[in-house]
Amino acid sequence: MSFRRALALAACGLAGGSVLFSAVAVGKQPARGGDAEPRPGGSAAPAAVPSASAAPPGLLLLPPAAASCPPAPGWIERPAGTGGYWDSNWDRREPLALINLKKKNEETGEEELASRLDHCKAKATRHIFLIRHSQYNLDGRADKDRTLTPLGREQAELTGQRLASLGLKFDQIIHSSMTRATETTEIISKHLPGVKKISTDLLREGAPIEPDPPVSHWKPEAVQYYEDGARIEAAFRNFIHRADVKQEEDSYEIFVCHANVIRYIVCRALQFPPEGWLRMSLNNGSITHLVIRPNGRVALRTLGDTGFMPPDKITRT
Q: What is the spatial distance between Cα 255 and Cα 287, in angstroms, rounded to a whole number?
């Protein structure tokens, strides 16, 4: 029995209210005239006869519970030797997935397949810079009233200066249509002249998915998760993917949006459980840098970087 299967059974038993299987490390017992435990009076208990279902060395089996066991989570049941849990076709742009294999089997040969695969492979790397908006007026009743505070404007200036200092040729700035993100973008763009700006409703703040573990200070209605979650997932699918096959050079793109959106995108891009998005925290004006390679591999270079700001300018509201 593999460790993952043992873990699945243990989790199953605990979830059902009784332990079905317990994997316990058993230390080596001191020898007392062999493996049998001595009985009072000097006689030894007969040695147990191994069975086909005996526990592996170092594991202690407990009797199974009467209740049936629900299916184990997929991540536990994944067979060993599969090279981890990375889905190489996470963005539905894996070259082999783009080719009609049925047509290949009936009409083409291996050489033509290799040529077709080359035409479907990305060549460039995408650098995604996710910027959280600067500090804003929390007392505003409507979005138009939630403008940047004086400190927030200073933060945006510092973020713009930091991005400009990187010496990169940024291709575009895509920003949330909410006021605080739009104002942050306007200040940043002054430091990046000539870079086009695009506004989108997809990146507006919202409740992406119910967090796990839950928190007591923030509990949106279920309908908000239903509505916002679909939109934020659409933003991820629309903006976060490997480069188009026609893209020849590496690209550098800036997305100015919100903490919930950024944290959800990071979890999805790295294929971490998206329910864990609220376990991270992002400062205002912070920079998160994702890299998407031509083969679809994703790396997180920085998460919520504000090291370029003086300590007295850092906030998280």
A: 10
- Per DSSP, the three-state class of 268 is helix
Residue 130 near residue 257 (C-beta atoms within 8 A): yes
d(CA 226, CA 222): 6
Two tokens, residue 91: 């963005």
Least confident of 30-34, 128-132, 167-171, 271-275: 30-34
Is the separation of the CB atoms in 156 and 172 below 8 Å? Answer: no
Predicted model pTM = 0.72
Give, in order, the Cα–Cα distances in Å from 285 to each of 82, 185, 235: 40, 10, 20
**Cα 259 to the center of its chain, rounded Å:** 14
CA triple 276-280-284, angle to 5 deg = 140
How far apart are the C-alpha atoms of 288 and 296, rounded to whole Å? Answer: 19
Q: Which structure tokens are listed for 9? A: 């059974």
- From residue 120, how far is each of 103, 104, 131, 254 by CA, in Å? 16, 15, 31, 26
Burial of residue 267, with CB atoms counted within 10 A of its CB: 0-12 exposed, 13-18 middle, 19 or more buried? buried
How many Å apart are CA 55 and CA 44, to the nearest integer? 23
Task: Fill in the DSSP letter of residue 109.
Answer: -
User: φ and ψ at 10, to 5 degrees?
Assistant: -65, -45
Cβ-based neighbours of 93, under 8 Å, separated by 6 or more: 122, 241, 242, 296
Alpha-carbon gap, residue 87 to 236, rounded angstroms:
16
* pLDDT tens-digit map of 9-68: 444 444 444 433 334 344 444 444 444 444 444 444 444 444 444 555 554 444 454 444
Max distance between CA atoms of the chain, in angstroms, equals 94
Separation between Cα atoms, residue 4 and residue 79, nearest integer Å: 8
Rounded to an integer, what distance in angstroms lies between the CA atom of residue 288 and that of residue 282?
Answer: 9
